[in-house]
Each structure stands twice: as structure tokens, then as C-alpha cells.
């Protein structure tokens, strides 16, 4: 088993073994946040006919500009009611926004530039041929690919699918993720705290991150640092595509997670990432199931979820955009304790003078969950960087929310 590897190597190693989850057909009304497993191609033009963008009059304009025109109004065309009556040279139809342009007409003049008396309309400002006509297929042409496989469906995307009349789409099944927090010191919320114990918070932070990302989550009650208890808990998660554990990841006698995963039948792909926080992470594979053992330290668990687990879960879930992108930020504070390992610092993003400034959370300890509140960024400080200076440019990535 490899140990102390770079984040990118760890990602590549796991991503290479990932198989996407199966697909299913869902109604578009239930497809918000789901990931498309098909390209969506339009079978129609949108709009399906040339239409008026205004309330006004439609007629047959000529290039010759004239001061005012008097035309005979032959009918009214509301939206939804196409007219087959051909517009003659001195004729017009009263037309409303969204209504189809009738045959023979080639322009629309807005209501405000006209006056109708009886069946005669005076057009004070004649327009040129083609004015105010939305052409058929202006937005979408028949055969256009509107959305590609791997796209995560947002409200406008669902609206677009509806606009071309599609009611069912093929999407990837939501991945099922099992969560297990280990540690003999852990108690559940609602119980009164015994000496030497702390409340389990990791199950709650990770459950929220997973739900926000659109996954199905099953949370197992906390277990002690005993291998037997951990094995029994893992047995309950055989339906999960991915299992995330926290705690017991490091080097002490009670850090039993790697041993438990091995006994459970996992092949361990690596142990330890060359970064902080979250160094003692490991990943195991058993058939199609992946097991992420993360540090029990609450902030470290969240950061490792962002850096390592999220891209892999997103790939599994079918997302085309599963890789995190880095961009430059300017440091608003200094940081002395950079050290030999690559380090990800939690920071608030502040826009000032056209740049994103990274305003560091005041405490950066692996156990300090409060540092995640209001933090938008993980600033990527390279190994052996030395102290970080105010005003320095560094790479960073968003913490997804
Ligand atoms: N001798 C060494 N000791 C440690 C090393 C090392 O290299 N040599 N690594 C340190 C680093 S780095 C980390 S990170 C931690 C990781 O420890 P574990 O993953 O084994 O986690 P635990 O010891 O179980 O817990 C760490 C910390 O977090 C608290 N915790 C655990 N689970 C929860 C939870 N569900 N909710 C809230 N808080 C939790 C736990 O009580 C501990 O305080 O190891 C270092 N040690
Ligand atoms: O790798 Mo640990 O999360 O720094 O304390």
C-alpha cells in the first residue's frame, strides 16, 4: 500500500477505478439537481413560428420610408391563435405579444406609434421590413444539443427541456453514501455529557455536505474504537456505493480503521496524504464499493471531504465537472506555521479592488470546526513554502456549499 502520497495521485488512483452509477428515467419535475445521463436534443424549433415581441400592428413594409401610413385592419391576432389570412399591401392585423406573424406581413410596429379609428390604423412611424419579428428557431434550432450528458440540472436547464416539450429524462441514480463516526469518546446529541466524552459532530457536518450534493445518506450510530464494533457497523452499509468513516485513522493503538477495513475485505489503495489538515486519510476498495477513512478531527474531516471525497463522489454520480479548479487569491493575512507539508488554509473570500482577497479564519487547527463557518476558500500553500505574507498571491479553490 502506498503511503504519504500527493492529493493528485490519490485522486487519479481512485478515479481510475470508479464506475459510474446506473441510470434511471425521471419526470423533469423531479429532475432538479440530478445529473443528466443523456444528451438532450431538441426535436423542434423554438420559437416554433415567427412571432411578435410586441403588442401592435403587423403589415407589409417597404424599404421606402414614409411619414405616416393608413392601413385597413383586417383582423386581430392574439397569442395562441394563428391567422391564415394573407396581409395585402394596404392592410394590417392588430397583433399581440407572442402571436404568430400572419402570411404576407413582414414587420410589427408598436401600439404606441399608432392610432386606430374604426377599421383604419394610422402608423405614425413606419418601420423597415423585418422590424420587430422574432424569427422561427431564434433560440433553438431543431436538432440542437441543448444539454450534454454529465450536466447537473438547474432550474433554467429544466425549463429549457420543458420548452422543447420533453417530459422525461435519463439521469444517473443518486449515489448512496454510508456514514460512520468511530471513537469511544463520542456521545450522541440529546444525551448528557459524561466525563472524557464529546458529542459527535462529524456525522452531522458530513450528512449535510452529502445531502447538499444530492446524495442519499445513511448514517450509522457512532461506534467505539473496537474492531468488532466497527466491522458490525460496516456490515450494515453493504448497500452503499461509498462509505465514509471518521476517526481512528492515525497511528495510535486505538486507530483501528485501516485494520477494520482490511479485515472487512478491502484492498487498501493508500494511507496518508501529503497535506494538512487531514493527513491520515486512507481509501479502500471492496468490489465496486469505496471506503474513505477520514481524520476524526472535525475541520480536517470536512476539508478532506472537499479535497478528496467530493471529486470522486461527483465522478461516480456522473458529473462531467467533477474536478476542482484553482484560481489566484491575494492573502489578506500572514500565516507563519506553513511547515514542510502542503497546507490548505480556510479563508473568507472578500472582493476588493477587482481581486479576491483571502481573509484567513482566525484558528486553523484540524479540530476547530468553527473555522469552517463563513469560510468560502481553501488556500493551497505549497510544501516548504515558508511563511505566507500579506498581499502574496496563492492558488485557492472554493469550498462548495
Ligand atoms: N503520534 C501521532 N499522533 C497523531 C498523528 C501522527 O501522525 N502521529 N496524526 C495527527 C493527525 S494529523 C490527525 S488529523 C489526527 C487524526 O486522528 P484520527 O483520525 O485517528 O482521529 P481521532 O483520534 O479518532 O480523532 C481526532 C480528534 O477528533 C475528535 N473526533 C473524532 N471523531 C469525532 C466526531 N465524530 N465528532 C467530533 N469530534 C470527533 C476526537 O475526539 C479527537 O479529538 O491524529 C493526530 N495524532
Ligand atoms: O492531518 Mo491532521 O488533520 O492536521 O491534524
UniProtKB/TrEMBL annotation:
E.C. designation(s): 2.10.1.1
Gene Ontology molecular function: metal ion binding; molybdopterin molybdotransferase activity
Domain of life: Bacteria
Gene3D superfamilies: MoaB/Mog-like domain (3.40.980.10), MoeA, C-terminal, domain IV (2.40.340.10), Molybdopterin biosynthesis moea protein, domain 2 (3.90.105.10), Molybdopterin biosynthesis moea protein, domain 3 (2.170.190.11)
Pathway as given in its UniProt record: Cofactor biosynthesis; molybdopterin biosynthesis
Family: Belongs to the MoeA family.
A single cellular component GO annotation: cytosol
UniProt GO BP: Mo-molybdopterin cofactor biosynthetic process
Catalytic activity: adenylyl-molybdopterin + molybdate = Mo-molybdopterin + AMP + H(+)
Function: Catalyzes the insertion of molybdate into adenylated molybdopterin with the concomitant release of AMP.
Keywords, sorted A to Z: Magnesium, Metal-binding, Molybdenum, Molybdenum cofactor biosynthesis, Transferase
Cofactor(s) required for function per UniProt: Mg(2+)
Keyword Magnesium found: yes
Span of domain MoaB/Mog: 178-315
Name listed for the protein in its UniProt record: Molybdopterin molybdenumtransferase
NCBIfam families associated with the record: Glp_gephyrin (NF045515), molyb_syn (TIGR00177)
InterPro entries documented for this protein: MoaB/Mog-like_dom_sf (IPR036425), MoaB/Mog_dom (IPR001453), MoeA-like (IPR038987), MoeA_C_domain_IV (IPR005111), MoeA_C_domain_IV_sf (IPR036688), MoeA_linker/N (IPR005110), MoeA_linker/N_sf (IPR036135)
SUPFAM superfamilies reported for this sequence: MoeA C-terminal domain-like, MoeA N-terminal region -like, Molybdenum cofactor biosynthesis proteins
Amino acid at each position: 500500500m502506498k503511503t504519504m502520497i500527493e492529493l493528485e495521485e490519490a485522486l487519479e488512483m481512485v478515479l481510475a477505478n470508479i464506475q459510474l452509477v446506473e441510470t434511471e428515467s425521471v419526470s423533469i419535475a423531479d429532475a432538479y439537481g440530478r445529473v443528466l445521463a443523456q444528451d438532450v436534443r431538441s426535436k423542434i424549433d423554438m420559437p416554433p413560428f415567427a412571432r411578435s415581441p410586441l403588442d401592435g400592428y403587423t403589415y407589409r413594409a417597404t424599404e421606402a420610408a414614409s411619414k405616416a401610413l393608413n392601413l385597413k385592419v383586417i383582423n386581430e391576432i392574439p397569442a395562441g391563435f394563428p391567422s391564415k389570412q394573407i396581409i395585402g399591401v394596404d392592410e394590417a392585423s392588430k397583433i399581440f405579444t407572442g402571436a404568430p406573424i400572419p402570411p404576407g406581413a413582414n414587420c410589427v410596429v408598436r401600439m404606441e406609434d399608432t392610432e386606430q379609428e374604426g377599421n383604419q390604423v394610422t402608423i405614425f412611424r413606419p418601420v423597415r421590413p423585418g422590424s420587430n419579428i422574432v424569427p422561427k428557431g431564434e433560440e433553438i434550432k431543431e436538432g440542437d444539443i441543448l444539454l450534454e450528458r454529465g450536466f447537473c440540472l438547474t432550474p433554467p436547464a429544466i425549463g429549457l427541456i420543458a420548452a422543447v416539450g420533453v417530459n422525461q429524462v435519463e439521469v444517473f441514480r443518486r449515489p448512496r453514501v454510508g456514514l460512520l463516526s468511530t471513537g469511544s469518546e463520542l456521545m450522541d446529541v440529546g444525551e448528557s455529557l459524561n466525563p472524557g466524552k464529546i458529542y459527535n459532530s462529524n456525522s452531522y457536518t458530513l450528512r449535510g455536505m452529502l445531502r447538499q450534493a444530492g446524495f442519499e445518506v445513511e448514517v450509522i450510530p457512532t461506534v467505539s474504537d473496537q474492531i468488532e464494533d466497527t466491522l458490525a457497523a460496516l456490515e450494515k452499509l453493504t448497500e452503499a456505493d461509498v462509505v465514509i468513516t471518521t476517526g481512528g485513522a492515525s497511528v495510535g493503538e486505538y486507530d483501528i480503521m485501516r485494520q477494520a477495513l482490511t479485515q472487512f475485505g478491502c484492498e487498501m489503495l493508500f494511507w496518508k496524504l501529503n497535506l494538512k489538515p487531514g493527513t491520515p486519510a486512507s481509501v479502500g476498495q471492496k468490489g465496486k464499493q469505496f471506503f474513505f477513512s477520514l481524520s476524526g478531527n472535525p475541520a480536517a474531516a470536512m476539508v478532506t471531504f472537499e479535497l478528496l471525497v467530493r471529486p470522486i463522489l461527483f465522478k461516480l454520480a456522473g458529473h462531467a465537472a467533477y474536478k476542482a479548479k484553482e484560481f489566484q487569491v491575494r492573502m489578506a493575512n500572514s500565516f507563519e506555521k506553513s511547515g514542510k507539508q502542503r497546507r490548505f488554509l480556510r479563508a473568507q473570500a472578500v472582493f476588493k479592488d477587482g481581486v479576491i482577497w483571502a481573509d484567513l479564519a482566525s484558528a486553523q487547527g484540524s479540530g476547530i470546526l468553527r473555522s469552517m463557518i463563513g469560510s468560502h476558500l481553501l488556500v493551497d500553500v505549497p510544501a516548504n513554502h515558508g511563511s505566507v505574507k500579506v498581499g502574496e498571491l496563492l492558488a485557492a479553490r472554493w469550498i462548495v456549499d
